[in-house]
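Work Package 3 (structural annotation) set out to generate three-dimensional models for the target panel prioritized at the project kickoff. During this period the team completed the workflow that converts sequence records into discrete structure tokens, so that structures can be stored uniformly alongside our sequence database. As a representative example, we reproduce one entry of 306 residues exactly as it appears in the project archive.
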Amino acid sequence: MKPEAIHLTRNVFGITRRRVATFEEPVKKSDGKGGFIDLLWKGVVVVEHKSGGKNLTRAFNQAKEYFSGLKERDLPRYVLVSDFARFRLYDLDEGQEHAFPLKDLHKNVRLFGFIAGYETRFFGEQDPVNIAAAEKLGKLHDQLTAVGYHGHYLEVFLVRLLFCLFAEDNSIFERQQFRELIELRSAEDGSDLAALLANLFQVLNTPPDKRLKNLDEQIAAFEYINGRLFAEALPLAAFDRKMRETLLDCTTLNWSRISPAIFGALFQSIMDKKARRNLGAHYTIEGNILKALRPLFLDDLRAEFE
């Protein structure tokens, strides 16, 4: 590709292709044979291009054949197929299909808002994404408890992770910034992940002008988070391969679909196995979570309106 897609990501949405996606990604198809995905943005979109006049339905089916060769967390929400004159965009989560010719691309740019992190949000306590969030973070909670990390330190640690997950899907961090840090800067066996997270938390609590000059560029790129959320020094929480995989699985969820108004119920369900089975209940801890988030961005928004 594929100049059209490059133009769309870079010139329209301000995202460089090298930052998020790879061309000709090798993958094993459902029939066991090898293939190459034209463009893969892990966890977001698969793009399949064909020459002019080719059957786009077949192109879509071919793109889906690649799914069996991807990790669960890398499965895309969107599939885009085209022959450079016609486009079809499939939203697999919502079961929607949008087809239009190249000449009407400018009329359909909103469909590609996901490239910049925009989308229509649906909030609700029984939204499946809320249940999935509780289950995934709850699994990590149980794994940390099993190795002896518990009590107050565990609660603070999980609130920080919850914030980081929410932040990268709500424009507080860059899109997938937290996920990419874990994927690219930690060993697959998880042995150095606890130290990496401790370093990140310290950086998040430090204004840019007070940070060390020789910080890893990927960590230094994170925004300063004021308030006290990252102020307390915590003991290192030892990770292993399975725990790292669980945290990466958490990053695949679209946390922008989770309303801060239900963070309390979500967090309580994470900490309590019994409550995890009844996520729809309300919990008084909600106010404490919002209290931590409000100084970060809600107060500024309120001031603008006033």
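The chain has twelve helices and six strands.
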